[in-house]
Amino acid sequence: MSTNSHYMIRGTGTPFFFQHGLGGDCQLPHSLLKDLDNVQLISMDCRGHGDTPLDDPNQISFNQFADDIIDLSGYLNINQFISGGISMGAGIALNIAIRHLVKVKALILVRPAWLNKPHPENLHLLEVLAELINNRQGESITNLKEFKELETKEYNTSQAVLKQLDRKQPEHTAFLLQKMVADSPFSELEQLKSIRIPTLILSSHNDFLHPYHYGPILQQSIPHSVFREVPSRYLNNDLHEKAVLHEVESFLKQNQLLS
């Protein structure tokens, strides 16, 4: 954990570490699950995100972000917790479950964007965006063929790509995009068979950056896991948030994880 790591804690109950996506910050998890009671919701700004500085550029990876959460749990004297996250945060939660399973009571993966391979096709536009930033080219990503195709097919998803240009610590944006898209939370699907704890996986159709089929793949690989489809946030964000809250709350109740 960075010595200046920024994190938020809300509520009391079962400790629940829930991480944000690439380019985001800890405000998003707290907004998404603001009505979830009987948990101590904890979210950290990953290095180079939000208000956590990027101390060492070489320490950007799923392993490092996962270890930062483990370090924070130790700092807070939390021995076991529910691990979860959105997009990149789902990858961090998976990494924690694989490498620190003894710490994890349950796993919640919302809109996973990575499996076991680096450079996933769904995140290719983020790598292109990083190249344009690094090269300081006059060309805008909005002029690229791949972006125009995405804009036509899924307009709101295309706008989510552009939001990477409007974030805190913009000087680190290109580096973070390159490093994280080139990384993966785990190396083999076979590793997921060791995660023998209650697991909830949520995915949506109409969400190019977070492919729907990743959900069933993870569900088939993780014992004791359940998969649920939720409405796309890019089609109706209110319905999406209500569905995510309902599924998370139902899962925690069913597994007696709310205190």
Summarize this, please?
With 259 residues, this protein is α/β, with parallel strands linked by helices. The protein contains nine helices and seven strands; from the N terminus they run ββαβαβαβααααβαβα. It has a single domain, classed as 3-Layer(aba) Sandwich (Rossmann fold).
Binned strand content: 15-25%
Q: Major sheet, described briefly? A: 7 strands, mixed
Shape: globular
The first-level CATH class name = Alpha Beta
Task: Report the order of strands and helices.
Answer: EEHEHEHEHHHHEHEH
How many domains, as an integer? 1
Strand segment count: 7
Helix content: 25-40%
Unreliable spans: none
The CATH superfamily is identified as Alpha/Beta hydrolase fold, catalytic domain
N-to-C CA distance: 27 Å
CATH topology name, in short, is Rossmann fold
Oligomer: single chain
Q: What class would the helix/strand composition place it in? A: alpha/beta
Number of helices: 9
Mind telling me which CATH architecture this is? 3-Layer(aba) Sandwich
The overall average pLDDT, rounded, is 94
Strand order of the largest sheet: 1-3-2-4-5-6-7
Which descriptors would you attach to this protein?
single chain; about 260 residues; alpha/beta; Rossmann fold; seven-stranded mixed beta sheet
What does this structure look like?
The chain is an alpha/beta fold. It has one domain (7-119, 184-254): Rossmann fold, CATH 3.40.50.1820. Helix content is 37%, strand content 15%. It has helices spanning 27-32, 62-75, 88-99, 124-135, 145-153, 155-162, 173-181, 214-221, 237-254, and strands spanning 7-10, 14-19, 39-44, 81-86, 104-110, 199-203, 225-229. The chain has a seven-stranded mixed beta sheet, with helices on both faces. Helix 8 links the parallel strand 6 and strand 7. The radius of gyration is 17 Å and the shape is globular.
